[in-house]
Design brief:
Its EC number is 6.3.5.-. With 479 residues, this protein is of the alpha+beta class. The chain has 15 helices and 16 strands.
């Protein structure tokens, strides 16, 4: 009889911070750029070069720690983690082992209505390594040091997660907290948020943990979910076959849906940590910590409550809008310009999400100005354009961020509100469609819809539907 197993999962989440310059030098952290152009003697590990700590890195790390209910280590320091990889220019990484900046935190997740705290063991600051680029034709490997020295925080959870769904809920919660803080854009596809999964299995009810493996190369939530399910099955198959799970680091290949052993897992002593002699300890005063705490934004959970109270939006709308800080910012900025909250929500939930999905883009890359959405909503409200023309204009606003008023003027899209001119057109349509008139008179009120459609067609969609309905009804009722 097969035994019941449960997974035990802890995460190490690396987040690239949104500073303009690197952690220990003044080089740019911008994503992309020709290889090795965002570099200097410090971030390429030249002998004699000395690091200088970027204060903003400490403030971002502190902000994330406070937002995840951590204790802040007010006297912390950097250590050297010694190892050789070709993309690691100094042959050591400056990190934090003994006194990480944040400890003993937690975040609450919600999976299918079940709330649960995931504990955070620590958050520490460190520098990123460079990047190896493998040439498939020649077999050569080239190194790009642009990423070397980009500031990271590593968020280390306790092994509190028991399923892929809990892992995704935890990662989404972390990502939103960090995005709301402005500490990182957390784009998994660009590597600014990366998760390593430590996973073991054990029989349900067992107290001891099984042997864990670490899964790397996970750059999307889908890949993380697939990797967890794949590794869980692999470990259970080994145990059921009477074999042992080996503690090791494995690389996930999402295309093949399988993982491969990379190396046996090192322990802290293998890295020969010691305090970095070139960097002084960091002293975080109460005043500095209070200043960072006072600058914390309104987070998603607080926003959701306020949107319900202030704007009385449906829960579904609130979930979608607050699920992206960028979308929430557009929503609030458009309302601040005088637009009705539900009307703004409708445009974001409907046309914006539709165009985002059609374009296969990230919601955070939406680039139209709130002023242009507010103007479009106002033009529809004032009957300057009808809603179907509004959708056509919005597509241009979404793609090119054009001024809707100028576009409507230039393309002659203003609504026809002149009752006299419309009446002449409608009388002609009524005369040409005796069958619809007959149907209307026979009590088939839907027949008026066909006549409205013909009018809209004749006016190239520019007629005001309300006025068209009014004139049609008057004409038909008087016949």
């Amino acid at each position: 009889m097969s035994k019941n197993y449960e997974t035990v999962i802890g995460l190490e989440v690396h987040v690239e911070l949104a500073t303009k310059t690197k952690i220990f030098c003044g080089c740019s952290t911008a994503f992309g750029g020709a290889p090795n152009t965002h570099t200097c003697p410090v971030c390429t590990g030249m002998p004699g070069s000395l690091p200088v700590l970027n204060k903003q890195v400490v403030e971002y790390a502190m902000a994330v720690g406070l937002a995840t209910n951590c204790d802040i280590t007010q006297n912390c320091k950097f250590d050297r983690k010694n190892y050789f990889y070709p993309d690691n220019p100094q042959n050591y990484q400056i990190s934090q082992l003994y006194l990480p900046i944040c400890r003993n935190g937690k975040v609450e997740i919600d999976v299918d209505g079940e709330k649960k705290d995931i504990r955070i063991h620590e958050i520490h600051m460190e520098e990123d390594a460079g990047k190896l680029v493998h040439d498939p034709w020649t077999g050569d490997s080239l190194v790009d040091f642009n990423r070397s020295g980009v500031p990271l925080i590593e968020i280390v959870s306790e092994p509190d997660m028991r399923s892929a769904d809990e892992v995704i809920a935890y990662l989404e919660k972390l990502r939103l907290i960090i995005q709301y803080l402005g500490a990182s854009d957390c784009k998994l596809q660009e590597g600014s948020m990366r998760a390593d999964v430590n996973l073991s299995v054990r029989e349900v009810g067992a107290e001891e943990f099984g042997t864990r493996t670490e899964m790397k190369n996970l750059n999307s939530f889908k890949a993380i979910k697939r990797a967890i399910e794949g590794e869980m099955e692999r470990q259970i198959d080994l145990i059921e076959a009477g074999e042992k799970v080996v503690q090791e680091t494995r690389r996930w290949d999402d295309t093949k849906g399988a993982s491969y052993a990379m190396r046996s897992k090192e322990d802290a002593q293998d890295y020969r940590y010691f305090p970095d002699p070139d960097l002084v300890p960091i002293e975080i005063s109460d005043e500095w910590m209070d200043k960072v705490r006072d600058a914390q934004p309104e987070f998603r959970d607080e926003k959701k409550v306020r949107y319900k109270e202030e704007y009385d939006l449906p829960d579904y709308d609130i979930d979608i809008i607050t699920g992206s800080k960028h979308l929430a910012d557009i929503f609030e900025a458009t309302i601040a310009l005088g637009s009705e909250p539900k009307e703004v929500s409708n445009w974001l939930m409907g046309e914006t999400i539709r165009l985002v999905n059609e374009s296969e883009m990230d919601i955070d890359d939406v680039s139209f100005k709130p002023e242009h959405l507010a103007k479009l909503i106002e033009m529809i409200k004032n009957n300057e354009i009808n809603r179907s023309v509004g959708k056509e204009v919005f597509e241009k606003v979404f793609k090119e961020d054009i001024d809707p008023a100028a576009y409507v003027e230039e393309h002659g899209l203003k609504s026809m509100n002149d009752e006299g001119a419309l009446k002449a057109t409608i009388e002609e349509i009524v005369a040409n469609n005796p069958k619809s008139v007959e149907d209307y008179k026979a009590g088939k009120k839907k027949a008026i819809g066909f006549l409205v459609g013909q009018t809209m067609k004749a006016t190239q969609g520019k007629a005001n539907p309300g006025i068209v309905n009014k004139i049609l009804t008057e004409i038909l009722d008087n016949m």
